[in-house]
C-alpha cells in the first residue's frame, strides 16, 4: 500500500510566508487580534464590575468622592498650565512668568523629594499596636492609600519623611522605615485635604479596618487639623547610574 503523501514545509518557504504573508493570512491575523482585544476588555470590565458589586454604598460614595477630588485637581492644574502657556505666548512679561513658573516647579519638587519642611492642613493618624502585629506591608499599603486620597507630604513619628525611595521593613527590633526604628504608638502626619484623607484611611479594607481587625487587635485615631507642620527632611542621594537624556 503506498504511503500517504506528506507535505513538508521548508525553512525557506516559512521565512518567505512570514516576510510576505498572503491577504488571507493577514485577515485571519487581524481577526484574531481584534478578538483578543475584545476578550481582554470584557474580562477587565467584568472584574471591575465584580469588585464594585461587592462594595457597600458608603464605600462606593468614598470612591466617587476620591475620583471627584482627583478630577477637580487635574482640571485646576490643566487650567493653570493653559493660562501660563497663554501668558508666555503673548510675549508680555514672558521672562517674569517663566521665572515664576520655574520657582513654583522648584518648590513642588522640593516638597515631593522631602528636602524642605512643609505645613498646611491635614490629619494626624495615631496607630496603637499593643500586640506588635502591624506589618511593614500594612504600613506601606496605608501610605499608598493616603497618597491615592491626595496626600502631598507624609511623615512617620514626626522624624521620618516619606518620599519616593522610602522603604518599609522589619529587623530584630521590629518595624523600620528607611533603616530607622519605628516607635509605638506610631503616628502618621499627613498633609492634604483632611476629609479626603480621613475617608481614605477609613475605606473598607484600608488602614483602620486592618489595624482594628481581630488579627491585629489594634486601634486607630484620626485627628483633622487646619494647620500641621512636617519638619523632617531627607538628604538627597546622588544618582550613580541614571542621568538625564538630552
TrEMBL record:
Example of a GO cellular component annotation carried by this entry:
plasma membrane
> Could you say which residues form the signal peptide?
none
The record's listing under Pfam families reads: DUF881
Q: Where is this region: Disordered?
A: 85-104
Bias (Basic and acidic residues) ranges: 93-104
UniProt similarity note: Belongs to the UPF0749 family.
Give the protein name, as stated in the record.
Division initiation protein
